[in-house]
Amino acid sequence: MPKFKMVIIGGWNVDEYPARVRWLFREHAPETISWIGPWLERYVRYYSVMPPAEMVPDIVRYGSYTTGVTMHVYNDYPPLLHQMWGMVGIPSGAEKKATTTPGQVYAKADRVMEERPVDSTFCFIPFVPTDDFMGSSLNPWSTSIIRWFTCFKYPKGGSLEEGEDWYLKTHAKEVMKQPGLLRFFSYRTMDFSGMTTWTRISEQWYADYASWHKAVVENPPKYTKPAWAKYDQYPFLEPHKDFLGTFILERPTNDLLRDNMTYVIGP
Question: 10 is in which domain, residue-wise?
């Protein structure tokens, strides 16, 4: 069985999207495979699902990013990030914003991220969910599925033990009362390469955006606010600071290990 996953939740600006996608397929993915291919069991990319326009304010309010998820599945523990990425190229045009070399950029990759993420957010998690709350027997052919893919950390000033006690014993039970929730599971992050900023990655599945909106915005269950919370609304973690995520489908958009990634600009 694969050992663990690295999950990258993309925070690209929409205006950067065309250039970043070109960079991903033409340069970054082939370079990634060249350098860490021996450790990769799987390397896939999920693009975010475009939401209905009228739901955008609510989706943003819940910390949603726009560009999706990249996932590495490792068959063994690779070298530290700054060692295995030392020669991999940085996004085209980055030299205009900062005078740094690829080696200098990735030498910092194993350090804790900024408190408020402005670009992609990295998490390392086990291959199998740490906690499977509901829906493990779901027949995926019986319904459409949209995955609300989130990561979070508890705010400064509170202990990890208090946060986990609330999440596992109180909050998860209340989340399972959401109308239309199909599946709910969560991973505790791993302390690989010193990147321990985020505490958990969780997934909540719904049939579609309308079902998510009814469950989370229109008709949510009553939630218990923890004593340590500094943010008053569900999920009691500040969006884009302590809580963020995106909406993806169950099937990856691209299999970067197996797809033909020849970058052709066609008619």
Answer: 4-255
Average pLDDT over residues 188-207: 86
Question: Could you tell me the pTM of the whole model?
Answer: 0.84
**Tokens 């408020």 found at:** 116
d(CA 23, CA 211): 35
Is 264 inside a domain boundary? no
Q: Name the pLDDT band for 251 (thresholds 50, 70, 90).
A: very high
Residue 203, token pair as written in the block: 């997934």
Rounded CA-CA distance 55/240 in Å is 17
Residue 57 falls within a domain, yes or no? yes
Peptide bond into 155 cis (omega under 30): no
∠ CA 78-198-234, nearest 5°, is: 150
Left, alpha or beta for 236 (phi > 0: left; psi -120 to 50: alpha)? left
Residue from 184, 183, 179 nearest 139 by CA: 183
